[in-house]
Design goal:
Blueprint: H1 4-28, H2 49-52, H3 70-75, H4 95-109, E1 116-118, H5 121-124, H6 148-154, E2 168-172, H7 177-190, E3 199-202, H8 206-213, H9 220-237, E4 244-247, H10 249-253, H11 258-278, H12 283-286, E5 290-293, H13 301-322, H14 353-367, H15 388-404, H16 418-441, H17 444-449, H18 452-470, H19 504-521, H20 524-539, H21 546-554, H22 559-570
Parallel strand pairs: 1-2, 2-3, 4-5
């Protein structure tokens, strides 16, 4: 970048500056060292632009996944004045409640496209609403789904111009993912829609559930077999369906540091890619449908930008050099975006401050080679029942950054920055250290079975909270600037939310009645026959379980009945004790 003589001159000038101008300035304020830093070309020696950054949409994808931001802006609703989904991530009470919500959002606000469905905890953990394990949780954190009948009711909101072949559906579900997909596939068949016309994305990232979130059912190895079945079935029959969305978000939300989040997520991704290869699939055939859920981020602006850039660069190297992928699309950290959704940085105290936090993140997203966005609604820490006003502010924040500030007019503006490139190299080195350590353990599954990821996340979460409580890490309005003279700025909801959270108390009773009715009307002999076949198929590790699960779903077997059969064969996972 500079010749040797010029580097030496810069180093000499820097020393003169430190001992002269800088020192005098610090002495005026009684400081011995500067709280801020200044970077020069000496901090970025041997910088090769093509090797380190390259062009947007080309290897090593440091700058961005795409050559233009237009595709991502369309996905995020930036170019269009409307969101492409029927609603934001949502799910409420019973299937009828959520169906009515989607219909309301379409008629009142012109929302179009498919749903992004949140499921309640019993559904996520493979329990029926009438299970003792589900008591008090039915319909609470998402929609309750027991049988195909619930899917039929929910998708009454998507017919005609919004039928399954014209929308994409997202399912935030992991352990029972194949049961939910079987319901979707069966619903499509009942409507006469070929499976190869379906589009959508289940989360299906079970490894991060073991490491961070906790909605697992079966032990890691049989759980990975279930993921393999999704990959192989979709590759053969549902070509436009993304079989997985590999998620760094929940790992970060559980307390992982930025580099841990990337290192653990990419190690998990390596395990999923190996699943497809071991199943006999060509890596360039199935990787084109792998997606990554946007990273979760903190407020350390420049380091988060560097981490996003390093993550894209590392994944490109992994796919090209480790797995030998030939198609450049396979090298992309597809769908990962830049900095991501800062939910764990938002606070219940002074919730309107969350707007500023989300805008900072949106700017960082633009600076890291991805589109600006307004983040989650400012009252998201309150739960899924966020207000429509908050949704509007979030959407408008992204529009302001795009259309007024014009942050989408340039990709990766910090490319070549002495500071950010140095941070990117530093983040890359740290992330590779984590990946190499997990490789040495035998891979992500072994690292999880040994409790490594769980311990590291718990340790980082403890350290973070300790810093907040001691005041070392400042959270405005929480542990600093909380005196009597400070104002608690609040807002009231002017637009009534279409789903009243009070209805959640009624949801369990309604769902139990609905489930009882389904059990009364179905053919129990047929249900038991399909469950027996599923049990036998599950014992054959080489078989794909989606076809027998679809048979059970068609007979209106419940998600709990299906998962209980698999529990009998696979066993249940017992959480690793991170304090051990």
């Amino acid at each position: 970048m500079f010749d040797k003589d010029r580097i030496e001159e810069i180093e000499r000038k820097r020393k003169e500056w430190e001992e002269g101008t800088l020192k005098k300035s610090l002495e005026r304020f009684g400081l011995k060292e500067s709280p801020t830093k200044f970077y020069t070309p000496t901090d970025l020696r041997d910088f090769d632009f093509l090797d380190k950054v390259g062009f947007p949409g080309e290897y090593p994808f440091t700058a961005a996944e795409y050559p233009s931001l237009v595709p991502e802006l369309r996905v995020r609703g930036g170019v269009s004045s409307l969101l492409v989904r029927a609603s934001s991530y949502s799910g409420y009470g019973t299937a009828e409640d959520t169906r009515d919500y989607y219909n309301y959002m379409r008629s009142a606000y012109g929302r179009r496209g498919g749903p992004n469905i949140a499921f309640d905890l019993p559904t996520q953990c493979g329990y029926d609403s009438d299970s003792t394990m589900a008591r008090g949780e039915v319909g609470k954190t998402g929609v309750s789904v027991d049988t195909l009948r619930d899917f039929e009711l929910l998708y009454e909101a998507f017919v005609g111009d919004h039928d399954l072949d014209k929308i994409a559906s997202n399912f935030t579900i992991n352990a029972p993912c194949n049961v939910i997909l079987a319901m979707y596939f069966t619903l499509a068949e009942k409507r006469g829609i070929p499976l190869d016309k379906l589009r959508g994305t289940p989360q299906n990232d079970i490894l991060k559930e073991f490491a961070a979130r906790g909605t697992y059912v079966f032990p890691p190895k049989p759980s990975m077999r279930m993921v393999r079945d999704t990959i192989t079935y979709c590759t053969e029959h549902v070509l436009s369906m993304n079989p997985i969305s590999i998620c760094g978000y929940h790992i970060r939300e559980a307390g992982a540091t930025p580099v841990q989040m990337v290192g653990f997520t990419l190690s998990n991704a390596i395990a999923y890619v190996q699943l497809g290869i071991d199943a006999g699939l060509d890596v360039d055939t199935f990787m084109r449908r792998f997606t990554f859920l946007v990273w979760s981020t903190g407020m350390d602006f420049f380091k988060e930008i560097a981490r996003a850039r390093a993550g894209r660069r590392i994944w490109a190297k992994i796919m090209k050099e480790r797995f030998g992928a030939k198609n450049p699309r396979s090298w992309m950290l597809r769908g990962a975006g830049g900095m991501g959704i800062p939910t764990h940085t938002l606070t219940a105290q002074r919730p309107l401050n969350n707007i500023a936090r989300c805008v900072v993140t949106g700017i960082g997203n633009a600076m890291s080679g991805a589109p600006p966005f307004g983040g989650v609604p400012y009252d998201e820490p309150m739960g899924l029942g966020h207000s429509l006003e908050a949704q509007q502010l979030s959407l408008d924040a992204g529009r302001i950054m795009q259309f007024e500030a014009k942050l989408a007019d340039v990709i990766d503006p910090f490319a070549g920055s002495y500071y950010v490139e140095s941070l990117t190299d530093e983040a890359e080195e740290q992330i590779w250290g984590i990946i190499n350590k997990i490789d040495a353990m035998g891979g992500a599954v072994d690292a999880i079975e040994k409790g490594y990821m769980q311990r590291e996340i718990a340790r980082s979460a403890y350290q973070y909270q300790k810093e907040v409580e001691t005041g070392e890490r400042v959270i405005v309005g929480v542990n600093r600037f909380t005196g009597e003279q400070e104002l608690e700025v609040l807002t009231s909801r002017l637009v009534e939310h279409p789903y009243d959270p009070k209805k959640r108390a009624e949801a369990e009773e309604k769902q139990l009645k609905s489930l009882a009715q389904v059990k009364k009307e179905r053919d129990d002999g047929q249900v038991q026959a399909t469950l027996r076949r599923l049990r036998e198929e599950a014992k054959d590790e080489g078989g794909n379980l989606i076809p027998p699960i679809m048979e059970a779903v068609k007979a209106y077997a419940t998600i709990g009945e299906i998962c209980n059969v698999l529990r009998e064969v696979f066993g249940e996972y017992e959480a690793y004790n991170v304090t051990a």
